[in-house]
Recover the amino acids of this structure.
């Protein structure tokens, strides 16, 4: 009896999980479907779901009008570059805060987070001037720097909370065995924190990939990432839903695939951690 | 110290790299409207004639572009060599000294061929500060079949009374047909573009000669009452969230009897691939009230050269090419006369091929000619602009007032309350801006 209750419960939970997942995924699905419609079908009311004339016209036009590969390359360089630099800075920072906290560690953490509380547009002009004077406008290096700064607080916070879970005694043991500080971080701490670092990396890449304020405002043509690519397909005069959907689908494609693959890695990393 | 030296070296290396490029590469910022996208495709013609000039494009949606370009020009960032800007920006930016005066567009350019209404809007002190790429006004688009069914005939130049009467007669709620579709979505370029142009025909104005806001005057009350009542009787549900695209969709689906909006819409509603009513559309001038001003606006997208660029000469060559008669002919030969950018040159409207290919050509020209950005209203005003006021504060004020009027349309607020709030908001901003005490 008890067993059948669990089974029906399990089924109910499975259904609920599926419904929630579908609701979350629906906007993306709708975008993908719309990208195969003609502009007329895209605005049709009541909306058509699958029963329309499928066409690749929007993709063709997007390919003709924009240099998609350039934007993808820029997006990849910017998000991977900024993640790498941020990681190099934040692992030592999080290590220091987690294992050697000082009197003001909590305050420093809060202060770092507080930099995220100001609306970005408030500092647009100072940053624009600084970038102009340093010759960083419309360069990948400039965008990597700004995105590193943008995401550092989040990365430090995430790594800090992962590191806190690791017992300090293990590091102590390593030190007793004669490990230097560098060796301690690279050979003892990092391997144990792999799942945490991996999910931090993934999240940071996604955040950088989708960032659409600084990348739009500080780039022009040469360093323009996918956010600019998408922004060139909406229009206040004229129909654009299908084209915009095609551009969006192309823009989220790489990150979706990457997320899918690294998700498997992530799960594996997590289970390894559990066995240890 | 060493780090600083390194930075200095890096910066100067970048600067030198920039200078080496300077002679050849133009960065052009432009909106992504159909005509501009077409220009981008046709630039081989330009680069063939000017092999030493390379073009880089930044094509963006209007609002994103406006923000980027404004940031760049206000900080003298110098990222762009050619800008696409609207008639709203040109007079303001010219006054700030942000734009290069265009007096070297070449011997074949024929400045006098530009339509006077358009040219006036982008000149300051008799000098041209931008070259018009395409121009538009607004007009009435209507369903001939529904008009006939209602037993009426649309005159070429209707009055507001006729429009209101026809709208009520054409409305058929059971069939889902709304007599008239008008903009209601709040924004200085959305409902306020339409309502400001409409108010001109009711004798209203934004400011008197001393910059005092005029929303407490009877003309504005008449305008807004007329609009709200008409939309209640004959407009679509949820009109307060409808802008250009929403109304376009409604009209193309056959849900509107009339639609008063940008002349550029004519090519969309008459396109059989997108519009269910393509063969049933007629055109007329925007309505008036017999006061000498019609409810049509005037807008042009123009190419301008920022004062910060070091590549003025190459930029001038490009601007001249893109807005020339030669370019018109190039588009016609490659894509047909119907796709030529409209509304900037007299010669285009004298062209028989163009008249044949674009049935709405005459109405577009008449509409543009009926607007005068330097004398937009019945009573005198201190500003330039038909559906906007060309002062930097207008984007903010226009949108604030637009929100009040949109609320009045939605029935969340009375007309009187909306006007009172609009007057207060405008007075406050104008005091802040130092126009009034």
């Amino acid at each position: 009896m008890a067993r059948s209750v669990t089974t029906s419960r399990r089924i109910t939970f499975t259904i609920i999980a599926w419904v929630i997942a579908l609701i979350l995924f629906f906007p993306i699905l709708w975008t993908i479907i719309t990208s195969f419609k003609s502009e007329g079908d895209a605005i049709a009311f009541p909306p058509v779901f699958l029963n329309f004339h499928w066409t690749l016209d929007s993709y063709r036009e997007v390919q003709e009008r924009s240099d998609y590969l350039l934007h993808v390359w820029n997006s990849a360089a910017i998000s991977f570059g900024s993640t790498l630099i941020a990681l190099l800075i934040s692992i030592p920072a999080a290590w220091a805060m987690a294992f050697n906290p000082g009197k003001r560690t909590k305050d420093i953490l809060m202060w770092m987070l507080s930099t995220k509380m100001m609306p970005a547009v408030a500092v647009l002009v100072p940053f624009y001037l600084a970038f102009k004077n340093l010759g960083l406008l419309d360069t990948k290096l400039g965008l990597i720097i700004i995105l590193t700064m943008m995401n550092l607080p989040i990365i430090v916070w995430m790594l800090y909370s992962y590191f806190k879970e690791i017992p300090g005694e293990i590091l102590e043991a390593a030190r007793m065995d004669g490990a230097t500080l560098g060796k301690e971080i690279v050979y003892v701490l990092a391997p144990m924190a792999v799942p945490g670092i991996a999910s931090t990396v993934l999240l940071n890449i996604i955040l950088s990939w989708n960032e659409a304020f600084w990348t739009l405002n500080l780039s022009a043509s040469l360093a323009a990432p996918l956010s600019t690519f998408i922004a060139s397909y909406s229009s206040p005069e004229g129909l654009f839903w299908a084209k915009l959907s095609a551009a969006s689908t192309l823009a989220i494609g790489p990150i979706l695939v990457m997320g899918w693959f690294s998700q498997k890695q992530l799960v594996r990393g997590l289970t390894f951690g559990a066995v240890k | 110290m060493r780090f600083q030296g390194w930075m200095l070296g890096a910066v100067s290396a970048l600067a030198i790299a920039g200078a080496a490029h300077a002679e050849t590469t133009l960065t052009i910022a432009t909106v992504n409207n159909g005509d501009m996208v077409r220009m981008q495709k046709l630039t081989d013609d330009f680069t063939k004639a000017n092999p030493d000039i390379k073009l880089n494009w930044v094509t963006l949606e209007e609002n994103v572009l406006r923000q980027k370009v404004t940031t760049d020009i206000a900080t003298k960032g110098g990222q762009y060599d050619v800008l696409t800007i609207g008639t709203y920006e040109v007079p303001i930016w010219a006054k700030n000294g942000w734009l290069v005066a265009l007096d070297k567009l070449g011997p074949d350019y024929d400045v006098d061929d530009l339509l006077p209404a358009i040219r006036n809007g982008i000149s300051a002190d008799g000098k041209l500060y931008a070259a018009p790429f395409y121009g538009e006004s607004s007009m009435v688009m209507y369903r001939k079949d529904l008009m006939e069914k209602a037993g009426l005939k649309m005159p070429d130049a209707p009055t507001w009374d006729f429009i209101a009467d026809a709208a009520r007669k054409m409305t058929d709620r059971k069939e889902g047909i709304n007599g008239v579709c008008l903009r209601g979505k709040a924004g200085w370029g959305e409902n306020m573009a339409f309502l400001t142009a409409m108010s001109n025909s009711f004798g209203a104005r934004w400011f008197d000669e001393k910059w005092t806001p005029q929303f407490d005057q009877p003309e504005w009350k008449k305008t807004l009452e007329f609009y709200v009542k008409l939309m209640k009787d004959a407009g679509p549900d949820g009109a307060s969230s409808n802008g250009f695209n929403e109304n376009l969709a409604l009209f193309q689906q056959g849900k509107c009897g009339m639609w008063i909006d940008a002349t550029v819409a004519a090519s969309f509603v008459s396109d059989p691939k997108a519009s269910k009513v393509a063969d049933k559309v007629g055109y007329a001038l925007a309505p008036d009230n017999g006061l000498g001003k019609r409810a049509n606006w005037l807008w042009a997208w123009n190419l301008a050269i920022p004062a910060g660029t070091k590549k003025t000469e190459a930029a001038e060559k490009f601007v001249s090419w893109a807005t020339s008669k030669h370019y018109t002919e190039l588009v016609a030969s490659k894509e047909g006369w119907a796709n030529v950018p409209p509304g900037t040159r007299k010669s285009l409207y004298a062209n028989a091929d163009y008249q044949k290919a674009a049935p709405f050509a005459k109405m577009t020209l008449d509409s543009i000619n009926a607007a005068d950005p330097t004398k937009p209203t019945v009573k005198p005003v201190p500003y330039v602009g038909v559906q906007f006021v060309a002062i930097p504060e207008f984007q903010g004020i226009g949108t604030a007032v637009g929100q009040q009027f949109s609320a009045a349309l939605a029935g969340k607020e009375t007309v009187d309350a909306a006007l009172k709030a609009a007057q207060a908001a405008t007075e406050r901003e104008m005091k802040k801006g130092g126009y009034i005490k």
